[in-house]
Amino acid sequence: MLPPRGRPQPNRPKDGVRTNQEIKVPQVRLVDANGAQVGVVDTQRALQIARDSALDLVEVSPNAVPPVCRIIDYGKFRFDQLKKQKAAKAHQQATGQMKEIKLHFQTAANDYRYRMVQAQEFLEKGFKVKVLVQFRGRELSRMEFGRRLIDGAKADLSPYGDIEELKVEKCFAIAVSPRKGGVKKKETQGLETEQETPTPISPSGDKNGGNSHGSRIEQ
Question: CATH homologous superfamily for 20-82?
C-alpha cells in the first residue's frame, strides 16, 4: 500500500529536496499543478491543495523569500531528474574520448564506406575519432596509395567534425573532433547519398582494392 500523500517516506533516498511535511516554513510562494502562479499562501493551505490533487508539495527554490514550492508528482519528477543526470553524465564521459579506426591501403571500397559511417556515428555521439592508414615492411614503399584513402576520409568526415592531420610514424592519420553546433546539414550528402568513394589501389595497380586486410575498428 502506498503511503498517503503528505507523509514523509522513510525508505526513500534523500536528495536534499524538501517535500510535504518536511517543509517547515510558515508560508510559501505556490505554483500549482498546471504551472500557474498562485502566490504567497500558508504552508498548511498549500499542503492541503497538494493532498486534494493527490500530488506532492515540493520545495523547488529554498533560498527564495518565501521559498517557492510546486505541486507535482514527486516520484515522476525525481525519475525525470535522474534520467537527465544520467544522460548528461554519459555525454560528459563521451566528450574527450577517442575512437580509433584502422584501415589498410588495400581496404575494399565497401569496407571503407562502412568504416566512414561508423566514424560519422561516433562523431554524432560526441566522440573524437582517429583514422589511421597503416603500412608495414615493404608496404612503406607504397605509401602514396594510402594518401588517397586518407584524403577521402578527410573529405567524407569534414561535414561531421573538425579535422587535424597527425604526424604518426609509418601511418597516415587524422583526428576528427565533433563540431560544436552539430553537423552542417548541407554538407552531409557525402555519406547519406551516393558519391565517388576513394577506390583503394593495390601495389600491383589493381583498382579493385584487393581484400580488406588490416581493416578493423577498435573501441
Answer: Translation initiation factor 3 (IF-3), N-terminal domain (3.10.20.80)
